[in-house]
Design goal:
The protein has one helix at about 25-30; strands spanning about 30-35, 40, 45-55, 70-75, 80-85, 90, 100-110, 115-125, 125-130, 135-145. By secondary structure, the protein is mainly beta. It has one domain: Immunoglobulins (Immunoglobulin-like). The longest helix has 5 residues, at about 25-30.
Length: about 150
């Protein structure tokens, strides 16, 4: 009695899939940051940085009312946040989608020397853009030196 033979052939085909997660909030609130280069700083030094910020979202950034949009910053040492600006630099006017505003942000250098990343972030409606899934504006390798 002849048997039935069945052959199973498996074929593996590599597939690359790129996904971009766009949340409604990140589509509404999005930004592009262009900060001026920073020279080496000394510990605890206060300085002003010119930062151009472009509204790449779909809603106008309001500069008045409850929780208006402000520019803030955080210092990171490797992956660890060492300082967060809680006040922020206010916008001089409302910023519509596609518009750019230049801000003079006052920052304070960390209290310990080292190489840091300065991360720029905007806050709207009492939420930081990064908490809504928006990437911060990063300035890596900012040198903070000991006072002489």
């Amino acid at each position: 009695m002849p048997g039935i033979r069945c052959w199973l052939i498996a074929v593996t085909v590599p597939i690359t899939v790129t996904l971009a997660l766009v949340t409604p909030a990140s589509a509404q609130y999005n930004a592009r940051y262009a900060p001026a280069p920073l020279p080496p700083l000394t510990v605890n030094q206060t300085t002003t940085v010119q930062v151009k910020v472009t509204n790449t979202g779909s809603v106008t950034w309001e500069n008045t009312g409850r929780c208006p949009v402000v520019l803030g910053y955080r210092w990171y040492y490797t992956q660890t946040k060492v300082f967060e600006d809680t006040q922020g630099t206010p916008l001089p006017t409302a910023v519509a989608p596609g518009q750019t505003v230049e801000l003079a942000a006052t920052i304070e250098a960390p209290s310990v020397q080292g190489s840091y990343t300065l991360a720029w972030d905007l806050r709207a409606k009492c939420e930081w853009f990064t908490s809504l899934g928006v990437a911060p504006g990063l300035q890596p390798n900012v040198e903070v030196r000991a006072k002489r």
